[in-house]
Amino acid sequence: MTDTILVLGATGNVGSQVVKELVEAGANVRAGVRSPQKAAALESDKVSLAEFDTNKPDTFDTAFADVDKVFLITPLIPNLVEVQTNLVAAAKKAGVKHIVKLSGMGAEVEPGVTMTRWHRAVEKAIEASGMSFTFVRPNGFMQNYSNFSGQTIKAGNAFYLPMGNGKVSHIDVRDIAAVAAVALTQDGHTGKAYEVTGPAAISNAEIAEIISTVVGRKINSVDVPEDAARQEMQKLGMPDSLVEANLELYGVYKAGYAAEVTPTVEQVTGKKTISFEQFAQDFITAFK
Predict the structure, then answer these.
(1) In whole angstroms, how far apart are CA 18 and each of 29, 63, 95, 149, 284?
(2) What is the mean pLDDT of residues 86-97?
(3) What is the torsional sign of CA 180, 181, 187, 188?
């Protein structure tokens, strides 16, 4: 019998790609979605839908029922540790055998930063649960540039981030999903923590050059002061705890502490890691 794999956040940036990878691998997928009606396009002979909402604990039991493996991801929220720890407990109660958690690069580093401490706290809960596990710890997402900076690139030929000239080994979410899918469908990944990155560490100035080449016009990278970045995030309604956590992470980037490049994606998947150039070509409509 084929294992049933529950993918939480199945319509999100990473979760949707995990569903795609699992379907291509022939897995039996249950997609956890907030509204099955709105996510009907996901449903197929390989994908069933289950209502799942972190704000509705009554949806947990149904989503986890008769599930063998889980891809654990939630939005970045101030109470991430509480919410994900509750999900770990729900998975254990339901008899889930294996959890693949989307974590963060550097989660094992002490004392770390706020976001990595949150992820490590959940990792520890998983380790203590008795379920087998794999942790996927990515660096920053390439898609953050298309999702969050695409509008200013289109409208004003620039993007604005408080990162200075710090180099970051950004990773395409498709590579994250590929690693997660392997860990969910193949043996040999139990107890592993995979630090996954893109193929090169690049600065925002280099990213601006890459996007300029792809779209055929000059794109500028603007290093904004921390206070200005704080005000913009606050204007968007981001909770203060998330604002400060994001600024702390940007500080890590700016200092050059996120430049490590690992071969993990290729080692786990056997596929070449997606470059920023390829990402920009594939997502050109976000910038052009």
Answers:
(1) 10, 17, 22, 24, 22
(2) 97
(3) negative
> Residue 50 domain-assigned?
yes
Give the total number of structural domains in the chain.
1
Domain at 129, CATH number: 3.40.50.720
Grade residue 103 by pLDDT with cuts at 50, 70 and 90.
Answer: very high
pTM of the model: 0.96
Residue 50 backbone dihedrals phi, psi, to 5 degrees: -135, 130
* 23 lies in some domain: yes
First-last CA distance in the chain: 47
* Torsion angle in degrees (nearest 10) through CA of 108, 204, 149, 137: -20
Residue span of the structural domain in which 11 resides: 4-138+172-196+260-269
CB 288 within 8 A of CB 212: no
Closest CA to 243 of 76, 13, 84: 76
Per-residue pLDDT tens digits for 221-247: 999 999 999 999 999 999 999 999 999
Amino acid at residue number 245: A
Give the pLDDT confidence score for residue 107 in this predicted structure. Answer: 97
Q: Is the peptide bond before 199 cis (omega within 30 degrees of 0)?
A: no
pLDDT at residue 1, as a whole number: 45
Phi, psi of 272 (to 5 degrees): -65, 140
List residues bridging with 220 in a β-sheet: 158
Q: Using the 8-state DSSP alphabet, how is residue 273 labeled?
A: P
Is 255 inside any structural domain? no
Cβ(266)–Cβ(160) below 8 Å: no
Q: Specify if 100 maps to a domain.
A: yes
Instruction: Name the phi and psi angles at 213, rounded to 5.
Output: -65, -40
For residue 145, what are the β-bridge partners? none
Instruction: For residue range 152-203, list pLDDT tens digits in order.
Output: 999 999 999 999 999 999 999 999 999 999 999 999 999 999 999 999 999 9
